[in-house]
């Protein structure tokens, strides 16, 4: 029952609003971005899913993961498409839904090499910038490179051990192996994973998933007060 003195306010966000949520592997970006997007009634955009789709497409085509010319030409000839919604993203290549095959150890092992290629990054950046705002965009370089003028920027961290504890239920591997893999992916992705100078840094270790979402919503709505 709402207090009569606090009439319901339907916050609407104009078409220019972009919220970015960056962070290291398994820091909670996708889960937090989805929760924030649902609360704001806007889509969330998973840039990581596009990089994973690019790696999956390269593996499917049997292309060398470091062959920038071949991979960039393949993306131009067989474009990826991100279907971005508040409750989840799906990545397509033509009519093929690649999403079920993107969060696997094989793609985890391949994606950093593909994401290191400037031509692949440029292709994905163009696709991300073509998406209609408002939305919440999550990844590594949303607030630094792709959407530097975003309305509000956040960067999530947590210790490798905490992140491994969160991931252990999702993967068929022991926690030490998961932690080692996360540390390695952090190292490989470091170049594009630095926080924007104007990003709010959030150590998610002491916070619940909902706690992180609520903290971000408070700061986004303060920016619109
Ligand atoms: N603050 C939190 N407290 C507890 N669990 C969390 C928290 N944030 C995220 N999680 C859980 O941790 C797991 C990893 O989260 P998520 O997949 O959103 O991370 P990510 O950064 O998107 O990962 P990746 O970089 O691999 O895409 C999920 O099971 C999620 O529900
Ligand atoms: N903006 C981005 C998003 C992701 N990547 C790379 C780094 C990761 O290894 C990989 C998968 O991302 P995740 O699903 O773990 O968020 O893609 C990147 O370079 N830039």
Automatic annotation (TrEMBL):
Main enzyme class: transferase
**Which positions in this protein are listed as binding ATP?**
23-31
Catalytic activity annotated for this protein? dCMP + ATP = dCDP + ADP; CMP + ATP = CDP + ADP
- Whether Kinase counts among this entry's keywords is yes
Q: Which InterPro entries match?
A: Cytidylate_kin, Cytidylate_kinase_dom, P-loop_NTPase
Reported EC number(s) for this entry are 2.7.4.25
Pfam families referenced in this protein's UniProt entry, alphabetically:
Cytidylate_kin (PF02224)
Please provide the record's keywords in A-Z order: ATP-binding, Cytoplasm, Kinase, Nucleotide-binding, Transferase
Q: Which family does it belong to?
A: Belongs to the cytidylate kinase family. Type 1 subfamily.
Instruction: Quote the protein name from its UniProt record.
Output: Cytidylate kinase
Higher taxonomy: Bacteria, Thermotogati, Deinococcota, Deinococci, Deinococcales
């Amino acid at each position: 029952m709402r207090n009569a003195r606090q009439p319901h306010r339907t916050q609407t966000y104009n078409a220019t609003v972009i919220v970015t949520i960056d962070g290291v592997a398994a820091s909670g970006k996708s889960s937090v971005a989805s929760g924030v997007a649902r609360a704001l009634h806007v889509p969330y955009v998973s840039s990581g899913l596009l990089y994973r789709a690019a790696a999956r497409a390269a593996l499917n085509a049997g292309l060398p993961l470091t062959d920038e010319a071949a991979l960039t030409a393949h993306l131009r000839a067989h474009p990826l498409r991100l279907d971005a919604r508040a409750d989840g993203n799906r990545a397509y290549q033509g009519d093929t839904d690649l999403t079920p095959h993107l969060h696997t150890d094989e793609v985890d092992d391949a994606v950093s090499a593909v994401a290191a290629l400037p031509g692949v990054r440029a292709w994905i950046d163009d696709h991300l910038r073509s998406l209609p705002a408002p939305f919440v965009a999550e990844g590594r370089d949303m607030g630094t490179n792709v959407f530097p003028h975003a309305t509000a920027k956040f960067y999530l961290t947590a210790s490798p051990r905490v992140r491994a504890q969160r991931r252990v239920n999702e993967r068929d591997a022991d926690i030490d192996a998961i932690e080692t893999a996360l540390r390695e992916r952090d190292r490989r992705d470091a170049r594009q994973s630095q926080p924007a100078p104007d990003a709010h840094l959030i150590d998610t270790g002491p916070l619940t998933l909902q706690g992180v979402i609520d903290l971000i919503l408070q700061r986004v709505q303060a920016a619109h007060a």
